[in-house]
């Protein structure tokens, strides 16, 4: 029997506002424990919330970028439960009237597919509990009242690959709109998975299992694959999954149970009486809509059209707004778009990955990058030397021309100098010369390599090739 | 008359004519408190040292010729659910017994800016839940007119303090009648302003959508002065309304000619004391004799108001009071063996019976499967009640009803009869449901106990109810009667 997996995601995203959702406290990450707090975000008796208008604006922005309908009126509700890091013992959230509904994101896994977004709502974050070794629990309330949006999808994804694509797309859209930096390592993007499996004829359906708090897209994909298999294995045995909440255990590479969901948790939602209804002016929404930046999909198409890039390149370059902007800046200075793209996608990405950094933190500027490419294209330096210079530029932020000068890395294109080196090598390796003459083509490569070695990589390889051939063939 | 029995505006005149200094006045009141507090028990915390030194500072300003407002140097008190920075604010509950807020309520700030002198925090029903000030964890406040009787609740401490000459005015909070009912029992003036007119920032919430801070004073003129001081939009309270500044002193007009007054038919039905009915009808005759047009009007949904009120107020309170969990401030249970146990024991030991009763009622009303039948339905009733009033106000300028169905009852008489206790707010609750302003003024006595006349106005039309109340006062002298202690 064939099975189909149904995956829905719930994603919490921290908004990039400077102040918290109901007070003026800072949302800056880090900071000494309990220093970004006031009576309001601590929920002290008598304190009242006042909704930060920027939060509404950012939620609308995100909603528009996710193709949602924006409510003209919505409200905040209280979600009641006890937890030490929840100072009011309720979280102010949105229940039955979310700010955005019915959107979608288009993903491309071979063919295009729309993943529907059920809703986007506004809520506040809670504090953070840390359990010390001696059994004492410490609470940091700095995060209390940090504004979040929760994005809930329909169960439209059918594989880990689709979910991964969706998350990447979502992240890039949110970064494009600048409503969030989506830094998972700082908790500004958190993801929960709802997953179940049904047989093709729908006769067997597993219970929905929730996997909470995935801290990377990779972990999300792995958790989905793990659950998918677990569900199918159980169904095959004639058993079913429990309605439960699980978490991904990175060290064991499996999901483990957190709690059963036998009884529905009763949060006793009701309208937040301390806040008035949120009325959203349609003109304001239109203003936000027109202020939205170009979204990744449009940018991708434009890159293909304007720069003649292949789809693959355009997709990778536009997946991050920072990278797309960088690319365009370089192309402004150095028009060979394909060469820029090649370099960005190979050397640049590799360096970012190795240093575990991102584009926001690079030390060199687009102009210098263009300079480097120009040096290579003009033949001032070889491609390989270019790679070395890039590494140095990446690490120090130095001007590539200065690096070339300082290290004397200029390419040797003087025919006489190269001839001299070629002759020396031919003399040194008569066997290889013989091999070549006896029809062993491979020997040519070896000899070229030796010349390059002699020149410390600086000789123009095309010229070396040409000159060696000339000597051997005569 | 003894100086402590004077009104705030009379004192203001004496201060400004330099017949008395703020310091002398404060010391005099503190002495009065020393004499009568043991009998009345209006206060839970007396701010004596701070009050005297603050009064000295005020005197310096008066001497320096600074411009004086109406409340400069006037000793007053605040209900103990209004936050005062550095000064205990306990809601008369064990759970907040040691709570000292790090900030002031907006109204506290406003009165400090006026240079009124804080004498102390007044007793109340625990978390403002009750109608007799008997649910306070500290003590039951006594009615200064009869020490065997309750002063009303939940602002009973504030009302008793003003009536007993232990403060020239006080602020209370009114969720279902908690200013007007004790004002009525104690023979003083109590105003519940329109919801949103006075900031709630710093008022420890009972039921957010119903709570409103308001003045308790000796007469209507004082009420206008205090109202002037505490009205204003507050950007710390998003339900606070940006209402254009009105000088409520200008509402003090001795004239009701041509005014249309509606008598609320349903508020005179069974359960209302005959003597109270008579006092109210006598008042109406007075208005008629002065040219007001008086007619009966029916608000058909009145009978559902009390039950809907208890659903809504309890629901909100179950959530508002959830933060008292023993984690960060207030009382924490000594022995517990898990986190859940800590929450449960702290709340079991920290809250009194009435508070627990309402938390449970509210928790139940909001629960899955019951929400529609209770909370949602109560909201619908609330809308109908609002519409009743809207309709009535198409034809009338103010509406009149008794403040309470009976005069002050004996201490202990209703404490074990919650439903009987809830009935004492039956005439005041609908006004909170509709968010309207209403005032209670003394309009007679029964066996030496005061009777309250309730005047209800349109949203933000405090001026008209003050005018009607002022006219009544100018033509009667119930407000001049003082207790003998
Ligand atoms: Zn804050």
From TrEMBL, chain A:
Residues 325-472 form the Asn/Gln amidotransferase domain. PROSITE patterns: GATB (PS01234). The keyword ATP-binding applies. The keyword Kinase does not apply. One of its GO terms (biological process) is glutaminyl-tRNAGln biosynthesis via transamidation. It is an enzyme of class 6 (ligase). Its EC number is 6.3.5.-. PANTHER family: GLUTAMYL-TRNA GLN AMIDOTRANSFERASE SUBUNIT B MITOCHONDRIAL AND PROKARYOTIC PET112-RELATED, GLUTAMYL-TRNA(GLN) AMIDOTRANSFERASE SUBUNIT B, MITOCHONDRIAL. This is Aspartyl/glutamyl-tRNA(Asn/Gln) amidotransferase subunit B.
TrEMBL record, chain B:
SUPFAM superfamilies: Amidase signature (AS) enzymes. It catalyses: L-glutamyl-tRNA(Gln) + L-glutamine + ATP + H2O = L-glutaminyl-tRNA(Gln) + L-glutamate + ADP + phosphate + H(+). GO terms for cellular component: glutamyl-tRNA(Gln) amidotransferase complex. The active site is at 79 (charge relay system), 154 (charge relay system), 178 (acyl-ester intermediate). It comes from the Bacteria. Keywords: ATP-binding, Ligase, Nucleotide-binding, Protein biosynthesis, Transferase. Pfam families: Amidase. InterPro entries: Amidase, Amidase_CS, Amidase_dom, AS_sf, GatA. GO terms for biological process: translation. Belongs to the amidase family. GatA subfamily. HAMAP family: GatA. Allows the formation of correctly charged Gln-tRNA(Gln) through the transamidation of misacylated Glu-tRNA(Gln) in organisms which lack glutaminyl-tRNA synthetase. The reaction takes place in the presence of glutamine and ATP through an activated gamma-phospho-Glu-tRNA(Gln). Heterotrimer of A, B and C subunits. This is Glutamyl-tRNA(Gln) amidotransferase subunit A. The lineage of its organism: Bacteria, Bacillati, Bacillota, Clostridia, Eubacteriales. The gene is gatA.
